[in-house]
Amino acid sequence: MHSQAVGPKILAFVGEKWASIFLLILVVVFSMVGKNFFAVKNFSNILYFATTYALLAVGETFVIVTGGIDLSVGFVMGFVGVTASIVMRDMLAAGNSQTVCMIVGTLVGLAAGVLPGLINGYLVARLRVPPFIATLGMYGVANGLALNLSQGFPAASGPGDRQQLRRLPAPRPGIHVLRTAAESPAG
């Protein structure tokens, strides 16, 4: 009789904690298979490469907590990246210094990211278009603009000395992620 009550409790526990259990299994497997899995450099690389997506996720958390949804964030990010890369590439080809190219490209990228946000905000707040519909439309617009600007090819040939970015006075990106996540509504 006692064993019959344990089964549903275990299933309920696994049903509630399945993501944590799966993560624990992944950590155990990769620590056994992968060399230097628990090395500081590995965790530093993971945090570094996840920074962009983590910041997008924290921003999306604010949208979801307020009862909305934004389907366009990924494609707006792609549009911003393409726009900034093309500006940097063309400015560098025109003979400008790498530092000027990076600064101007970053500012143009920020402006290119603000514009879709303002349009989405106007559609949702003023015109009362449902967030799902407004951001789905912006998803297509941003994707189309990025594809048109890049002509279907990677726009990755920016300033050659990317080590210059590391010399600029800026804190490590992982610190921003941790601080932003701690200050978010979900944190």
Account of the protein in words:
The chain has 187 residues and is mostly helical. It has 2 domains: 1-38, no CATH class; 51-183, no CATH class. The chain contains 7 helices and no strands. It has helices at residues 2-33, 40-65, 73-93, 98-126, 131-150, 163-167, 173-183. Helix 3 packs antiparallel against helix 4, helix 3 (73-93) packs parallel to helix 5 and helix 4 (98-126) packs antiparallel against helix 5 (131-150). The longest helix has 32 residues, at 2-33. It is flat. It starts with a helix and ends with a helix. The model has no long low-confidence stretch (mean pLDDT 83).
Q: What's the arrangement of secondary structure elements?
A:
Blueprint: H1 2-33, H2 40-65, H3 73-93, H4 98-126, H5 131-150, H6 163-167, H7 173-183
Helix pairs in contact: 2-7, 3-4, 3-5, 4-5
